[in-house]
Amino acid sequence: MSLHERFTSTNGNGHSLSDFCPVLISGERAPLSIALLRGLEKGLKTFGISSNSSVQKKITQLLKIDVNDTPLQASEITNLFESATRAIKRKGGQGLLLVIDELGKFLEYAAQSPAQGDVFVLQTLAEFATRSEQTPLLFLTILHQAFEQYANKFAKSQQEEWAKVQGRFEDIAFVEPTEQVLRLIGSAIERTSEDKEENLSLPNDFDLKPNQLTEDEFGELLQNCLPLHPIVALVIDPIFRRFAQNERSLFAFLSSNEPYGLQDFLSTQHCNGTLPPLFSVANLYDYLKANMEHRLYASHSGKKWAEIDSALDRLPDPSPMPTQLIKTIGVLNIIGEVIPNLKASEQLLRYALDDNTEGFTGEFETVLATLKKRSIAIYRRYNKAYVLWEGSDIDIETKLREAEGRIDTKGALAADLSHYLPTRPLVARRHLFETGTLRYFAVRYTDLENFDADLEEPIEDADGLVLYALPTNEYEVKGLSEKVSSTKLIEREEVLIAIPRAIGMLQDTVTQLASLRWVSENTPELAGDAVARDELSVQQVQAEREVSNRLTAIFGGSKKDTCTWYHKGQSIDTIDSQGTRNAYLSEICDEVYNETPTIQNELINRRKISGAATTARKKLIQRMLEDGDKKDLGITGYPAEMSIYRSLLWNTGIHRETDGVWGFHPPKPDDKNEIEHTWTAIEDFLEKCEGERQLISELYKDLMKPPYGVRRGPLPILLCAVILHYKTEIALYENGSFIADWSMPVFERLLKAPQLFELKRFRLVGIRADLFAQLLQALNQSVETENPDLLTAVTPLIRSVAQLPKYTLATQELSDNAKNLRKVVLNAREPDELLFKQLPEIFGFRAFDAQIATNAQLISEFFDTLRDALFHLERAYEVLLNSIEQTLVEAFTLTPSREDLRPSKEDLRADLVKRAEPLLAVTIGMELKGFLVQVCSGGHDFNSWLEAIATYLAKKPPASWLDVDKAQF
Q: Could you tell me which residues come within 8 angstroms of residue 671 by beta carbon, excluding any fewer than 6 positions away?
């Protein structure tokens, strides 16, 4: 569907994009904010929005502001556009279409006047357009050159700020194909029937024909472009696109009277009797130099344009042939960067300069040899082309010949390639787009000898492996083909293998690259010769590119018979290009990771997340722990943790409202993110935790492997959700110790070191549920029977025993049941083991397995025994105090108030005080006096008074006594 059809066709609601309110703005060197306001005002008025509306009044108000004194804020402009979309919606429109033509003029103004030309309004408008859904803002800008070109004179920090603005937009390049430009040139050149023409079609050897054209069509288009030389006809559009203003500059060149332009050329040239005058590459250089020199030198290729001038200045004889040859070499090398196969080879140079005059061949060869001898031009062997050179004392050609004798040209090609041109991983792009998970394949070169070792070498973090086999003969092709059909490879779903029928000149190309590396590493003189060093560097880069191109032709070409691909022991017929290979990588990921969840959040869905994502994950988990019963976990606004929450918990239905209560639940049955596989895998892991504790790090390993392939980033969040759903059945252990408090500090440690944490699960069913309820009653706690929490009961039991006085924890003057209870509780590590196994067994009962049917009498007997043992433990210290009291009674032969009773506590204390007070004033001995002070001290209750006397006498508080201390007292 054409762009016009898309704008005028109706959607499902009967509306079309023509229902949008258009805001059309033409570029000018003025503040962008003012142009936006004026354009919006005019667009709304045209759409029928009254000038009395609030949005129009606000525009009028802002237009009265002098931006030189008070620059408009980007947020003000964006808020106005947002208000405008709502007004358009009320008017029955579908949205707002903002088009800025010649945006470059606004950018030029902004570059010159940053205070008044705030380009960041583009960023805020683009961000609003991205989030506008109900009444969208469509935002289109038109530029004649790349956005960053307008900021090329800025400091790096300013360029980075402008790059952020550009990053909010999607670039759509409008580039006419070569054949269209050739037709345009041909139609612009008028001819008479008397024009004498000769066929100057390009030889096929140059490989410059566009793929869309036949040889005859290409030749006819070039013929129609005469008097432009065919090479000029091919390069002129890329040159004007790169250094000028595309078609505008092209027509100026063709039709204006600019110096050295086509019109000027035709008015000064005459036919030599054999060929009509042809506008050559050298003529094109003169035109560019005369009319746009400043643009050439300000461009990224400015140094290369300067090299042409330098080479011309070094000519001892500025006659036509040398100057034309230098200009042609220079221009071809500059524009050859963007036209494949265009290079200054000897054959192409001869074709570009041949004027069909007698003696041309001899003069051309002589001049070319002279340029090489004077180091004005140098021949690069790896791509068989000439470049201009500034000259050097180092003879690179001689050094390269020396290198060829030093390096091992018969070494393993796969090893050499891996050394000189390391591979880059291949990304399964479609799989990434559909699942949100970036998966990549490690790439290795291999050969028959090292195939098995390369296959078995671990691929570390990669999700799969692509092996590029490099057979050097038919024998190795056959041997490799036999290896890929082995049973071992049939089971390796994640491995894709390519075996070419032949590798052509790849070995020679790699040898040339190795030679350049050898010269670079073994020529000390390069340190003081910048020219030779730069030339060698350029040759290395281009040699690497040539090796890369040959590899692409071998493994990514369009001919199926050049390379055979294998997967699981079978050849793959559908791979015939890089595109189909990449598509097949996604198919492998779909197959290998067929239970992976869809997580469209690049912030969290990574192996290693950023610092910002780590902070957001911690905040989200804290919200899960503390605010799980709130909508959106109580998160307000749209911080980073909210986007993670939406992707992982809200979109999947894991955190949702059920019966009016928000909580964590298994994913919804209709969840399209397929996260239920991961949830189920975690549940399966919890089942294994019922028998014994399991390391959380082992769960992570399982989930990161096929068929799940979950990234490390979201795993703690998903685990936390499952744990909170089953919280009443799960116990957490750190370094083997039970963790009763599920707090954020605990989870922070878990995030850093999951290998130190274990989980154990226990189900409260059957007799265990009844036993659990009875335990809560014994501890005077309540419980909701639908959601029993074992930890709620066991933790207080452990705490109640652990907080007993040290005397109680050490004395042996207890019943056997009390001593056994104390021992197992103090050494308890697992709550379920304590309640269902250890406690019953120390009292002589069988362990309460989940399979045992409910038995009320058995439970009653168990708890009677438990209560009795707890009673003995709790009264042990009281018994000790009673013993101390009795000792004092016997020591001081105190008389009870009644003959049938021992003295009351009040009588005991009053009697002792009565005896001690007269002595306190006359006693000199420090020990006795201290004792008398303790007896006479007031303000304590009886037990505290008793403890103070016992502590003074025994030099240790009774709570810390051992049985031996009691005996001594």
A: 651, 652, 653
For residues 124-135, give the mean pLDDT: 83
DSSP character for 479?
H
Q: How far apart are CA 549 and CA 542, in angstroms?
A: 10
Let me know whether 221 and 296 are in one domain: yes
- What residue ranges in 710-771 does DSSP mark as E strands? 730-734, 737-739, 757-761
Query: Residues 771, 756: one domain?
Result: no
Which of 773, 785, 790, 783 is closest to 690 using CA atoms?
790
Crossing angle of helices 230-243/320-335, nearest 10°?
Answer: 60
Q: Would you say residue 514 has pLDDT above 70? A: yes
The pairing of beta strand 137-141 with beta strand 95-101 = parallel
Q: How far is CA 588 from CA 541, 566, 681, in A?
A: 34, 12, 22
Q: What is the mean pLDDT of residues 53-76?
A: 82
Cβ pair 585, 610 in contact under 8 A: no
Residue 890: CA count within 13 A, CB half-sphere: 7
DSSP 510-576: HHHHHHHHHHHHS-GGGGG-HHHHHHHHHHHHHHHHHHHHHHHHHHS-S-GGGEEEEETTEEESS--
Give the β-pairing of 495-500 and 563-567. antiparallel
Length of the chain: 969
Q: 585-590: list long-range contacts, CB under 8 Å, 24+ apart.
A: 585/426, 585/427, 585/428, 585/431, 585/441, 585/464, 585/466, 585/496, 586/428, 586/429, 586/430, 586/431, 588/428, 588/464, 588/493, 588/494, 588/496, 589/428, 589/431, 589/439, 589/463, 589/464, 589/709, 590/431
**Closest CA relative to residue 692, chosen from 783, 747, 759:** 759
Residue at a domain's end among 836, 852, 875: 875
3-state helix, strand, coil split of the chain in percent (to 5) is 55, 10, 35
Residue 784 pLDDT level (bands cut at 50, 70, 90): very low
Q: What angle do CA 138, 142, 145 make, to 5 degrees?
A: 140
Which single residue is written with the structure tokens 């130190």? 756
Alpha helix (H) ranges present in 783-851?
790-802, 806-810, 816-826, 831-833, 839-842
Give residue 349's domain range: 178-391
pLDDT digits (tens, 9 = 90+) for 647-675: 999 999 999 999 999 999 999 888 888 99
* pLDDT tens per residue, range 605-648: 999 999 999 999 999 999 999 999 999 999 998 899 999 999 99
Confidence at 502, pLDDT banded by 50, 70, 90: confident
Cα–Cα distance for residue pair 7/19, rounded to 1 Å? 9
The answer to whether residues 754 and 771 belong to one domain is no
Residue in the structure block whose two tokens are 């612009």: 188
Same domain, 714 and 856: no
pLDDT at position 902 is 62
pLDDT at position 440 over 90: yes
Q: Which one of 855, 875, 895 terminates a domain?
A: 875
Structure tokens at 477: 């092709």
Give the count of alpha carbons within 13 A of 316, CB side only.
6
507 shares a domain with 417 = yes
Residue 652 identity (one-letter amino acid)? T
678 close to 572: Cβ distance less than 8 angstroms: no
Q: Residue 321's closest CA among 275, 352, 277, 276?
A: 352
Whether the pLDDT of residue 322 is over 90: the answer is yes
Are 564 and 472 contained in the same domain?
A: yes
Distance CA 230, CA 202 (A): 7
Same domain, 234 and 347: yes
Give me the torsion for CA of 774, 779, 781, 783, rounded to 10°.
-30
List Cα–Cα distances, 566 to 414, 481, 769, in angstroms.
19, 9, 58
- Answer yes or no: are the C-beta atoms of 77 and 37 closer than 8 Å: yes
Based on the fold, state whether residues 243 and 377 are members of the same structural domain. yes
User: pLDDT above 90 covers what percent of the chain?
Assistant: 29
| Residue that wins the pLDDT comparison between 527 and 328 | 328
